[in-house]
Amino acid sequence: MIDTRVKSPILAFFIRYIFFFITIFAVYIFLKGHNAPGGGFIAGIIFAISLVILNMALSADEMKQILHYDPLQIATTGLFIAYGTAIAPVFFGYPFMLHKMIHLHVPLLGNLHVGTPVLLDFGVFLVVVGVTTKMTFTFSHSSDSDINTLAQDESGLSNTNEEPVVAPTNEQATTE
Amino acid sequence: MAIESLLLIAVFLPLFIAPVVGFFARSLSLNVAWIGIGTAITSASLIGRIIKLTKGLPFVISYNWVPAFDLQLSFLVDGLSLFFGLVITCIGAFVLFYARFYMSLKDENGRFFAYLMLFMFAMLGTVFSNHLLLTFLFWELTGVASFLLIGFLYNKPESQKGSLMALIVTGTTGLVMLLGILLAKSVFGTYDLSLLIAQRDSLVVVGALPTAVMALMLVGAFGKSAQFPFHFWLPNAMAAPTPVSSYLHSAAMVKLGIFLTARLFPIFSHNPYWGDIIVTVGFITMLIGAVYSILSHDLKAILAYTTVSQLGFLMGVYGLGHMQLLEHDFFHILNHVFYKASLFMVAGIVIHIVGTKDIRKMGGLFRIAPFAGMATLFACMAMAGLPGTMGFISKELMLETLLHNAQSHGGIAWVWVGTIIMSAICLFATSLRFFKTLFMGTVPLDLKDSLHAPGLWIQLPPLVLASCLIIFGLNPELLGHALAGLTVSGMHAIKMSHLALWHGLTTPFLLSLTISGLGVGLYTLFERKHWQMEIPKQLRFDTAFNNGLEGLATLSKRLHSWLRLDQSQDYLGIVISYIVLMSSGFILYYLPLSTIRFDWIRLEHIPATVIGFVICVFSIAVVTQKKWTTRLIALSVVGFFISFYFVIYRAPDLALTQMLIESVSLILMLLLLSKIPKGMAIKEEASVYTGAKKRVVLLISVLSGFVMMIVLWFLLSDPPATKLGDYFIDKTNSLAGGSNAVNTVVVDFRGFDTMGEISVLVIATLGILGLLMRWQGPTEESK
Description:
Chain A has helices at 9-31, 40-57, 60-67, 71-91, 116-143, 147-157, 170-175; strands at 101-106, 110-115. Chain A is mostly helical. Chain A has one domain. A two-stranded antiparallel sheet of chain A has the order 1-2. In chain A, α2 packs parallel to α5. Chain B has 783 residues and is an all-alpha fold. Among the domains of chain B are: 3-173 and 239-252 and 328-539, no CATH class; 596-686; 736-783. Chain B contains 30 helices and 2 strands. Chain B has helices spanning 3-28, 33-54, 79-102, 109-128, 132-150, 157-188, 193-198, 208-224, 233-236, 242-251, 255-268, 272-295, 299-320, 329-354, 370-384, 390-409, 412-439, 460-474, 476-484, 507-528, 541-563, 569-590, 606-624, 628-648, 652-675, 678-686, 691-717, 724-736, 741-749, 751-774, and strands at 59-66, 71-77. In chain B, α8 packs parallel to α12, α10 (242-251) runs antiparallel to α14 and α14 (329-354) runs antiparallel to α15. The longest helix of chain B has 32 residues, at 157-188. At the A-B interface, α2, α4, α5 and α6 of A face α25, α29 and α30 of B.
């Protein structure tokens, strides 16, 4: 396994803690999205950035332990949540994508308006997180020539009968 | 219980059991098959109960499903659907029992049995459906389920090829059938099968359009039932585990084409082309299958070709019926179901014993697997059509019909008599060879040590099925009585002739004797040549099909390399020049320059102008700077200043998003640029474009900028009277319950767009991953 972690120990230490603050900020941005700037897309990118930064401080194995799931699984889960929210009203005899708002009075927090659009937004959040991190991780594995991790990914995602895309060799690079 | 609930349970039970089976497979392993067997038996007994309740009268159950498409969840209970329902569930139970002992513990049993249950559901749905569109849905579902089953051992290349071939052939012919169904709706005005059958006397089935409907739907039937010229997929589907072969490819799925033909029989049998089309296709298939079966040496391929042959025979039964009504079609079908299912099961056992599929390397297995040997003896007797079996009666009946037909019509009808005699001779030789080579003689020397005896239980299902052939062969009236309760009006004769073991010394019997003699002769001839013959290369449709598929791939690759540009940024030039051409053409044609006004310029635009100026300066820097670090910083500055724009125009969401996107792309670019080998990086800095290309790119860039400016000017001179944005801002609280209009637009007002966008995002990621993972970084020397 090739060590791709950042060289500076100070930065590596710092990253591990700043991760939590960024994540909390992402959750905050997500929750207030319906009434103030924010929402699933923005929160997704923020969370993805925090994961990407964390990836710089950790090795690929550690990262896998933290995430548990492949980012692509996260993205597809988000997709299903979004579809599910959209289709669910149909089963209750309402039109497709009808939203449902619930108004609750919670002690200490005050009036709480929750609705199914939040679920759709959560789906968007997961998709953005999954897609962004998957691309970045694969990109960093690929540019680090981390063959093992790539091969694991590849066996699950692509048709092994296809020919791989070969990087331009030295001669081609110079003639172009 | 009422018939409605009985039928719904019988049809839908396998569907609900499928996930249960998949779930419990972890804890029960192979014993999960018992759940499946219980399901099949339950469904079968429910169908049996329905037979008692309806007493053979047609019965329709209808629920609205998708009224917009005129689609109803409508089921037709009559003799035909009940007969097929019984066959599917009973043989299903036998096959599941067999699979319980056939599959090994290592296999993914949950997946296997769940697929089988899904398949059973699809089959039941197809035979019971009363609505043509519903039939099509279930029809294609059987195709999907069979694709999953044939490709069960998905790591083997022949499984991949075979399952794909089956899916493409049956799927494409299924689509042709859909065409026929849609045409039928516009010609006859209904999708309802029971209605069509009831109105068959007043229905006009002669003429160009009804004939087209019939032909298109028959193509679907021919594809599914592996009729010529689609016969080649069936032998290739033999890559499936043997229980699948014995279920799908003998008893169930390939019979669907026969089923559809039978379903359409009352409607279309008055069409003058009905008989000609079906008999021609069916009998050609019968002959091809029989000849190929004797030229094959793979145990399962032999059986596959005999199946093809027998399916052609069954097709022919329905084609010949057009002159009078049908009599014993169910008897013919049952004969084939019994003997072919048991032969496939035996083939699985034998392949397991000897570890090879080549029939030429086998022999003397009777002592090791006596019950399987008995089953093979009975089944081969039926396949050869020897007296005392159902096969004999089936063949006699067919010969009698054909001779009768030939005597009254003459001409081409005699050709069909010749065809059936020739294929019967081939099948006789194949049956003889199958039994003799497998179970008689001595065990080949090289196999002696590797043999291991099969268990008793696994030999039971084939023996039971094969015994039926003898029992009903000796007492045909037993079956005749049972089947008489399943007659369909408009299809079957009201009073059937009696089935009998012995018809006397008739012409068919003499023909049978001749066939047996010639069959033995053919066998001895091939035995002397040591079975060296192969199927001629020119007549192998499957290789032709594969070549065609490969040719298609090659063609698309050629087309791609012809259209492809070497550098991806070159596409940008093409796209942008197209936009420039289109929008400038539009402006020149529709908008006179006099509409440009300047009165919208006001003092409050000054901050935006300053920002715009900064963006311009840094954009120029991106292009003109030499070092990539400087360019990258300039590009980021451009991005961040654009977000200021959003702030000025009261779009904090967009500003936030823009900044975050800038951050992510900065990280990505740094990742990329830090990994570029030094030598290449220097080259990149110089310039991508040189010489004439540089001038062209410059021209396109300047033009596009200019055109964009003009477009904006027009937009600002003549702002639209009403803005969509105002509506959303106005209604965001009352309609979407949120005060952030940007967010409510994304997740509520235009939520459908968002769903599409996130789907595209995931799909695009899959495509990008393909490229990223395969990118084998630059070689060590170039670093």
